[in-house]
Design a protein that fits this description.
The chain has about 575 residues and is of the alpha+beta class. About 45% of the residues lie in helices and about 20% in strands.
């Protein structure tokens, strides 16, 4: 059992659902159901088993699961997934990196092809299929029934498929658009489980051939009926309406967005996936970006189901798709299923992260011989070319980011690039306030820098008569942290350890926060200088504009009515817009 499985076993919920076992290639090799996912799945990896189960377990490299409302739903989902994936572990499945589709091409004389690359120019796709073998078998059957062309280009004379009775030969026989549209509709119905009408028709043909003693054609028709029964198996439908829809479940915390997506095609669940997306400040942007990016290259379904609180975010963003927030019935239950899976996915992610970060904090305490530092504060300066010097402080509690505790600092007493002076000023201001207001001090201060910055921080603490451990994150020649400086000693880091990953995250976060703040200050400064040049904008209007719009782009794109509300008249607005346009063109 690998570490990946061990981590997931520790976070399995005690809830009903369907679980899927994957091999090292990411192929689903077994699907099961459980009244209690935790107990059932863990049972595979403990105790003795028969040879069949042992063989299965030996091939498991990863596992996934979908939580359901009850055991009955788990059973229905299991049946649906088994029929979709055909995932018996003793069957040799191909290694499909992406799911194949059957394409009904948009040409004068269309044909069926297998593709993994969907295009918005051609929305006539069927699938996805769990592997290319299944897709090819289905396509071969459809070609036997509907006799579409097989050639890449229409030839000038009939080919062998025409002689075999497997092609309509559009090279010599004119086939109307109406006939092709009819074929497309029949194929669509057949692949969505409406095969009864076709089977009835074929059985009538078989009986007709038999009545005329044409046993050869009767046998061919019988074989075709058997192929349909073997290849296109009726799926268990979740919705009576055989619609295509994507169902999104959304859960989030202060820094992570959990997105669970259930693919519903022809009224049945065919795929599901969970995604954890880190975000910093704007949750809505993260939600929009994460969902819309799914449809940058692929054709969206007719419907998207999502909680009503997010419905307005997507309205009008995804072409040819209606956004719904079902409040009752089966569709609402699907939404609840997606929501539950997103919640559990986030819980598991956080639990795994917390466990790893807890281990990282223990490693840090053992390395430096200090108490486990639950609260860590880290500082970084940003003073490119000595212009608009600023500093930032980020806080990690229990190894996790605590964005509400972050602080920004304008450097007041230092002019020009001076790492020692800047760090001393900022850390003095930070811990003077903590001491005076009796706030919670950190267990460890991490400085993004070497000995100079560490000494500056220690000097500030001595002046304040405070004792806090201070370490420096020193970078190598490739700007990668490889050493911790602590009490005049250097401690090398194992780049594969949990500790290194935590320190890297802290260093990246404090650097990002400082650079972002520095850029905001630079832009605001440029904005303010432009406002000084516009006649009619005095100190009060200038302050109002800076407070309201923040950036040059924001005021450049502002409505005239918005500017009037702040107090600008038409003439001043015209001059301001002209000056801003000049600035944008100059940049």
């Amino acid at each position: 059992m690998n570490d990946k499985i061990r981590e997931k076993l520790d976070t399995l919920p005690e809830l009903p659902g369907s679980y899927q076992m994957l091999d090292e290639n990411g192929t689903i090799i077994y699907v099961g159901k459980a009244k209690n996912l935790r107990n059932r799945v863990r049972s595979y990896f403990v105790g003795a088993h028969n040879n069949k189960t042992s063989a299965l377990v030996s091939k498991i490299d990863d596992l996934k699961y979908i939580v359901t409302a009850n055991e009955r739903e788990a059973f229905l989902l299991e049946i649906s997934l088994i029929k979709e994936y055909n995932p018996f572990y003793n069957i040799d499945l191909t290694d499909d990196k992406t799911y194949p589709y059957i394409e009904f091409t948009k040409e004068k004389n269309p044909k069926l092809t297998i593709t993994r690359h969907l295009s918005k120019k051609n929305n006539r796709y069927f699938g996805p299929y769990t592997n290319v073998v299944s897709a090819r078998k289905t396509m071969e059957l459809l070609n036997k029934i509907y006799k579409l062309r097989k050639c890449n280009t229409v030839p000038k004379k009939p080919c062998i498929y025409y002689e075999m009775g497997e092609c309509m030969a559009p090279c010599i026989n004119s086939v109307s658009k109406e006939e092709y549209d009819k074929i497309y509709k029949e194929i669509k119905g057949l692949l969505y489980g409406n095969e009864l009408s076709l089977l009835t028709k074929l059985k009538e043909e078989m009986n007709m051939y038999s009545s005329f003693l044409d046993f050869e054609n009767a046998k061919k028709t019988r074989d075709l009926i058997n192929s349909i029964n073997d290849t296109i198996v009726r799926q268990d439908v979740i919705l009576k309406e055989k619609i295509d829809a994507d169902v999104y479940g959304i859960t989030y915390d202060d820094s992570l967005l959990s997105l669970s997506l259930i693919y519903l095609r022809g009224g049945k669940i065919i795929l599901s996936k969970n995604e954890i997306v880190p975000y910093y400040f704007d949750l809505e942007d993260a939600i929009i970006h994460s969902i819309v990016k799914n449809y940058e290259t692929l054709n969206p379904p007719k419907y998207i189901f999502i909680d009503k609180e997010y419905k307005d975010l997507l309205e009008g963003l995804i072409e040819d798709t209606s956004i719904f927030s079902p409040q009752k019935g089966t569709k609402h239950n699907l939404l609840l299923m997606a929501k539950k899976n997103s919640e559990i996915s986030l819980e598991n992610k956080n639990k795994i992260q917390v466990d790893k970060k807890r281990l990282a904090l223990i490693e840090l305490s053992e390395l430096l011989n200090i108490n486990i530092p639950n609260r860590i504060e880290s500082f970084d300066n940003s003073n490119l070319f000595g212009d608009s010097p600023v500093s930032s402080c980020v806080v990690f509690i229990g190894g996790k980011k605590a964005p509400k505790e972050y602080r920004k600092y304008h450097v007041k007493s230092i002019v020009g690039p001076n790492d020692y002076g800047t760090m001393k000023e900022v850390t003095y201001r930070r811990y003077k306030r903590i001491k005076e207001e009796n706030l919670i001090p950190p267990d460890l201060i991490l400085i993004d820098g070497g000995e100079t910055q560490v000494k500056a921080c220690l000097e500030s603490l001595r002046e304040l008569d405070m004792e806090i451990d201070v370490a420096g994150m020193k970078k190598d020649d490739t700007h990668s942290t490889n050493t911790l400086i602590f009490k005049d000693k250097e401690y090398e880091l194992d780049k594969h350890s949990n500790l290194f990953k935590l320190l890297f995250e802290i260093q990246e976060e404090v650097h990002r926060f400082a650079i972002t703040f520095h850029r905001q200050i630079k832009e605001k400064s440029a904005f303010a200088s432009i406002l000084d040049e516009v006649k009619g904008i005095g100190p009060t209007l200038k302050e109002n504009l800076l407070s309201k719009f923040k950036t040059i782009d924001a005021i450049k794109n502002a409505d005239i009515e918005e500017l009037k509300k702040i107090g600008l008249n038409d003439k001043t607005i015209e001059k301001l817009k002209e000056r801003l346009n000049e600035e944008i063109e100059f940049e």
